[in-house]
Structures are given as structure tokens and as C-alpha cells.
Write a structure and sequence with these properties.
The protein is of the alpha/beta class. Helix content is about 30%, strand content about 25%. The strands form 3 sheets. Strands 3, 4, 5, 6, 13 and 14 form a 6-stranded mixed β-sheet that branches. A 6-stranded parallel β-sheet has the order 9-8-7-10-11-12, with helices on both faces. The chain has a two-stranded antiparallel sheet with strand order 1-2. α2 packs across α3 and α2 packs across α9.
Length: about 325
């Protein structure tokens, strides 16, 4: 039986039980590609996947890892890709696939695979993919962000947070960045937001309203949930939009429907991957635009590269919010 090496989750349990061992080799299905992994991005969702808390759960054993950069190793004769193409892609673990990017090879959706320009390295491509594409989808497709609107970005020093800050500024919006430490505050200030707040040491609402007035926020970008989301909702003005990007706090907030009604506030879900079949051409065009922004030095992904054998260590750091930007494992 053909096998490959990977970080394998044999049971639904904490990510610390991942084991680097042999995994059965996948069969190529319709609209899928097998990729030789060169760079794999770590995400908070990997922790949820391992522990059975993600919205879809693979059959065990499985390999976590939602994002990859590498070479096309296998494709169908009908594919628009060729063996040897340099690509970035979303793996199929987001819809219960078993072969994520924490291995020698992985299985990806052809509709969520993008050719990587020759001038962009695998590690940069992996750092860019889901963070910038998610933020672009959130701000432009879902929120319809306009110049001069005020955006509050929670967890602004994280992978999606930093991409949201940069893309909102490019759009001509004004940005408030909320972070959890002075180190993170210093990092985010480099990208030109109008205001950066350390929510652990400062009163977020008081500082924002003293600078911008009562309920000044037009768009809340929230990958956190919990108290950060509830606080952000109270800062939205009439016809404000709240982008639900994720729940890194582990706390999925209940909606204050009566408050949303009387304030004319819109709650907007952000799940870019659903466009795998709904409108993958839109995502392809936006990914090409994002690559152009990088090539023209208009965006700057913040990331740290690690070895493949350090994946468990850095998943733990992600879970305890001790990382900034993105973590990319190289092999």
C-alpha cells in the first residue's frame, strides 16, 4: 500500500497528539489535485480540527493543514493545471478531506488553487493566500467598503488582521487596530492605521469615541468573537456592518437582535471558501490582484518560517495568542 509521511491525527483529541508517521496515499477525485508540499501555513482552525470542534470533521486518521504552496504532483487530464505547476491552494480538509498540508503531499480543491507567479516564493505565497483573500472578500465583496469609512479591526496583529489593516488602507478607509500587547501595537503601527489600541491595558470604547465621536465605526472586522465582538458592535453607527470572520476566542457570541434592529446594524458572515463552487472565477481574479499588490510592494505579509518538526510547538503558541502574523512551515 502506497504511503507518505505526515503529521497525523489518529483520534479526535488535542493537537498535541499529532504524530509524525505514515499516512495512506490519497486517490485523486474529480476537481482535485495532489500537491507536493513546499510550505504549509498554520491556522487556529487546525486546533479546532484536531479536537473535533471545526464545522466539518474528517474521518480518522487525517492530516491537518488548510493551506499549501507547492508543485502540482497529480492532476486529471481535464485539469487546467499541469504537473509541475507552482501553486498555492486550499486543501480539502475544510470540507472533511483527510489529507491536509502538514505532510509530504496533500489534496486540494482545483477551484481553490491559484498559479503562483515566478517572482513570489512558496513561503510568501503560503503567507498570503487565505489571509489576504479572506480579508479582500470580507472588506470588498461582503462589506462593500468605501473610501473614508472607519474600520475597526480586532486581533489586528494576527494573519487576517494585518491583511485587513493593509487592504483597508489601500482602499482609502480609516483604520482602528485593536491588539493584545505593546509588542503587537508597535508592529501594527508600521502599517499606518489612524489608531492602535492595546485592549488589555486601554479602554477601547472610551479611546475610540474620544477621538472619533459617538459610535463612529462603519465596519467591524472581527475574527475573535466573545467580548471583543460585543464591544465592537456597540461602536457601530447606524447602518454599520459587522464582519464575522472567526471565533479565535472560542466564544461564539449570541446576537443582540433588538439592538441590531433599532440601530440598523447588519451582521455579515465571511466564509470565502463557499465560493469554491459559487463563484470561483471571482476568487481567482481577486487572488491575481493580491499577487499584483505584493509584486508592486503595496502589501507586506508578516510571517515567520519554521521547520516541519516545529508544527506542534507553534500550534500551541497560536492557541495561546503568542504569535504575530502568519506561521509557515517549510519542507
Amino acid at each position: 500500500m502506497k504511503e507518505y509521511k505526515a503529521w497525523v491525527q489518529n483520534t479526535v483529541s488535542p493537537f498535541t497528539n499529532l504524530e509524525f508517521t505514515s499516512m495512506d496515499y490519497p486517490q485523486l477525485a474529480d476537481h482535485e489535485l495532489i500537491i507536493e508540499t513546499k510550505a504549509a501555513t498554520l491556522n487556529f482552525a487546525d486546533l479546532l480540527l484536531s479536537s473535533g470542534m471545526y464545522q466539518s470533521n474528517p474521518e480518522q486518521p487525517f492530516v491537518p493543514g488548510f493551506e499549501v504552496a507547492g508543485y502540482v504532483k497529480e492532476c486529471s487530464t481535464e485539469s487546467t493545471f499541469s504537473v509541475g505547476d507552482r501553486v498555492v491552494a486550499a486543501t480539502t480538509v475544510f470540507r472533511s478531506g483527510r489529507h491536509g498540508s502538514f505532510g509530504d503531499i496533500c489534496v486540494v480543491s482545483e477551484n481553490l488553487t491559484y498559479k503562483l507567479p515566478d517572482n513570489i516564493s512558496f513561503e510568501v505565497g503560503a503567507a498570503i493566500l487565505m489571509s489576504y483573500l479572506t480579508s479582500d472578500f470580507a472588506l470588498h465583496r461582503r462589506a462593500q467598503l468605501k473610501p473614508n469609512e472607519l474600520v475597526l479591526v480586532n486581533a489586528a496583529a494576527g494573519g487576517v488582521g494585518l491583511s485587513a489593516v493593509q487592504l483597508a488602507k489601500i482602499c482609502g478607509a480609516k483604520v482602528i487596530a485593536a491588539v493584545g500587547s505593546e509588542e503587537k501595537k508597535e508592529l501594527v503601527q508600521q502599517f499606518g492605521p489612524e489608531l492602535v489600541i492595546n485592549y488589555r491595558e486601554e479602554n477601547v470604547n472610551e479611546i475610540i469615541e474620544s477621538k472619533f465621536g459617538k459610535k463612529p465605526v462603519d465596519v467591524l472586522y472581527d475574527p475573535v468573537g466573545g467580548d471583543a465582538y460585543q464591544q465592537g458592535i456597540r461602536l457601530l453607527g447606524s447602518e454599520g456592518r459587522a464582519l464575522i470572520v472567526g471565533f479565535a476566542s472560542g466564544n461564539i457570541p449570541s446576537q443582540m437582535l433588538s439592538y441590531l434592529l433599532v440601530k440598523n446594524i447588519s451582521i455579515i458572515g465571511v466564509f470565502m471558501i463557499s465560493f469554491e463552487n459559487d463563484d470561483n472565477e471571482y476568487l481567482k481574479k481577486r487572488m491575481e490582484l493580491i499577487f499584483d499588490l505584493y509584486s508592486n510592494q503595496q502589501i507586506e505579509p508578516v510571517y515567520k518560517t519554521i521547520k516541519f518538526d516545529e508544527i506542534i510547538t507553534y500550534l500551541d503558541l497560536i492557541g495561546s495568542r503568542k504569535t504575530v502574523g502568519r506561521i509557515v512551515a517549510l519542507r
